């Protein structure tokens, strides 16, 4: 059974870079698509983007594309999210998930990242 | 962007009774391969979302058969044949036909 776990700082200063890792167990990151999704507290879900190891394919939400990078580290079996130049509007729970080939079928527990000085 | 619109936004249900959630997309989610790229998720209180249905009508692994999905290319429905207390939470639809993938606003199911 695949399991995912987000990790990273819970507080980021405005204008700095948000960085999160998603450690995967039970499946190699060299297989499948891997996504990031976020959810401001009490609000709806926003898809951020995905990565597919083969060909290092990435696809990002155009609304975030200029600030986002998703990468994979096969030695650690994890994938990462970097979001640059953050503002308070980027405060959210950040989820990593496997997919979306057959839905987002496994999710991490989520990491709350607050943007504040 | 494809806009996903759910209804109702709140759904009080008596245990044992059926329930239905609707999701409408602003354009067809039917791919040329014949699949409809519409998923359903349930976010239980304090938890991350979990996949219920993908390709409009295929139940995810481990999902009880009281959950079913159907739909045309634009109008989709999630049905629960007999609601149980553990079904409480927010139900989201999501389209993955075209980036950016987009979610509905969510439907909050509560037990009467």
Oligomer: heterodimer
Please give the alpha-carbon distance between the first and last residues of chain A.
39 Å
| Poorly predicted residue ranges of chain A | none
User: What is the residue-averaged pLDDT of chain A?
Assistant: 95
Stretches of chain B where pLDDT falls below 50 for ≥5 residues?
Answer: none
SSE order of chain A in H/E notation?
A: EEEEEEEEEEE
The portion of residues assigned to helices of chain A is under 10%
The largest β sheet of chain B comes out as: 7 strands, mixed
Indicate the proportion of strand residues of chain A: over 45%
For the biggest sheet of chain A, the summary is: 7 strands, mixed
What is the arithmetic mean of pLDDT of chain B?
Answer: 97
Biggest chain contact: A-B, 21 and 24 residues
Separation of the first and last Cα atoms of chain B:
36 Å
What's the total number of strands of chain B?
A: 11
Q: What would the principal axes of the Cα set say about the shape of chain A?
A: globular
β content of chain B, as a range? over 45%
Secondary-structure-derived class of chain B: mainly beta
Order of helices and strands of chain B: EEEEEEEEEEE
Any descriptors?
heterodimer, A: 117 residues, mainly beta, four-stranded antiparallel beta sheet, 0% helix, B: 112 residues, globular
